[in-house]
Amino acid sequence: MNCIRRTIFLFGCLQLTLLSSITVCSAQQQNKTGADSLTPSQQKALELLNIVDSTEVSSYWPNIKPSLFFSNIRNNILHPLTINQGKNTNFCSYAALTHLLIKYQPDSYTEMILSLYFTGNTKLYSKRVIKPSERVRKSAGTLRHNGEMNIHHADQLWFLSMADSFKGYLNFFNRKYKIGDENNFWASTNYSKFNKMLREFGGYKVNAIGSDLLRPWKKDIYGYMSEQLNSGLVMIYINNKLMYPHNLGFLKLPVPTHFAVLYEVNNSGDGYQLKYWDYGLKTELFLTKKRLKKTIYGVSTITKR
Amino acid sequence: MKLISFNILLIWITVTCFSCGAERKSAKYYQENKADLATLKSYYDSLYRTQPFSAGFTDKSCKYYVMQINTDTLRSVYTTDTRKGELWKNVLHYQYDTVLLNKMAQKMKHLKCLWLAKTTDWLGEQKETYTFISFRSVSIDKPFVEDKFYILVFLDHKIEHPIVNDNIKKGKLVPVDDLVYFTIGSSYR
């Protein structure tokens, strides 16, 4: 049965390749659907989505509801900015990576997630095959306390698969998933694991500075970040407690807690204006020079594939 | 050995002395401040209709305000200690009622409210939006007390759902009024 599904999926991919060569027909269709503003990669992703059976429940993912799964993928392809890690989860690293992957390679994302759905495994750009465990496959679609992600079944499948397939030292004592683990060490990501995922998922060349305990040895972190923004896509590893200005807690641990995608950093004289992406939106805020230095634990730059 | 035991005893006595007697906010707090809380919420609801936002303080003494204005694609964070000018520029840009905003700010300070926001949640496939107001959990600020927050949740309508009922049954959500609940959380926003 699985072989039949795999064959159908692969046949679908082949069909898509043939279809995309017939440019005249597709061009007419795009005009009808108003898809002129879509990138070729987005169009390819949507075409791939259109040729698969979007009503069938996958035997690999028994709790994933097809209608929620496919509408979630479609929305992700069309609006990569709105991807949300959900409430009460440690999925920030997976969400940041996915945001970039869908923004720049929506077709690769679609191929991978459809392969996971129909065959239970997928091959990454690095040729590594990921095969989520049965526990994860049975749990995807059942998360209930994670805000918007409750109804985003594709995101549940995707983030749980990523967390299950990549392990770092933070996951050492909790390697087998159980419900609720999305908010603890099972889903955590250390900096090295994050950079590894960037390389394996998108085949990106990554320049990274920083670590899990010590901040980068850069005198001018602002200068470094703006330089990196000019040369590629920048992701930051930060202490999120310091990003949002407050002085209410008794103790603030000096450790990184969050991954985000940096879009802008500007010097405004007495500090810096940052614009970064996380939780389905871009955030714009001001940080003093001292706070910026304390906040940044890692800067990863994707320069090329 | 005696020295170690003495030190442990000393630490225990210190922690106990500092943490005991710190009265925690409960349903009583809501009842005592019901009118002020209702006024604060009405100001917030009215201003929120102009442009969605959240607001709070950056410090324990409630001196500096923080306002987070949300659009469909951007959340902009402004604080009065570092970006007062920019905050007012945006308040005028979005055409908030400044008199009402000032009243809300005064009420927040009076109540020592740490954060005021609206959030959405999904119960099954049903989307629900509610308002929450956070405070420090302890009535008197003392060192070594647990870092917890007292959060009042205001619903717009009655919600009958197994998840909500389960939270009430487990004591995670405590009803304090019709459509008002409180919970104790480790995060205030």
Question: What's the helix and strand layout?
Answer:
The complex is a heterodimer of chains A (305) and B (189).
Chain A (H helix, E strand, L loop, with lengths): L1 H20 L1 H11 L6 H11 L15 H13 L13 H13 L1 H14 L2 E2 L5 E2 L3 H6 L13 H13 L25 H12 L2 E6 L10 H11 L1 E6 L1 H4 L14 E10 L3 E8 L2 E8 H7 E9 L1
Chain B lengths: L1 H18 L7 H6 L1 H17 L2 E5 L7 E6 L3 E6 L4 H10 L4 H14 L3 E9 L2 E11 L12 E6 L7 H8 L4 E4 L2 E6 L4
Antiparallel strand pairs in B: 1-2, 1-4, 2-3, 4-5, 5-6, 6-8, 7-8
Helix pairs in contact in B: 3-5
Structure description:
The complex is a heterodimer of chains A (305) and B (189). Chain A is an alpha+beta fold. Chain A is built from twelve helices and eight strands. Chain A has helices at 2-21, 23-33, 40-50, 66-78, 92-104, 106-119, 134-139, 153-165, 191-202, 221-231, 240-243, 289-295, and strands at residues 122-123, 129-130, 205-210, 233-238, 258-267, 271-278, 281-288, 296-304. Chain A has a six-stranded antiparallel beta sheet with strand order 3-8-4-5-6-7, with helices on both faces. In chain A, a hairpin with a 3-residue loop joins strand 5 (258-267) and strand 6 (271-278). In chain A, helix 1 packs antiparallel against helix 6. Chain A is globular and about 55 Å long. With 189 residues, chain B is α+β, with helices and mostly antiparallel strands. Chain B has one domain (23-185). Chain B is 39% helix and 28% strand. Chain B has six helices and eight strands, in the order H-H-H-E-E-E-H-H-E-E-E-H-E-E. Chain B has an eight-stranded antiparallel beta sheet with strand order 3-2-1-4-5-6-8-7. The radius of gyration of chain B is 20 Å and the shape is globular. The longest helix of chain B is centred in the N-terminal third of the chain and has 18 residues, at 2-19.
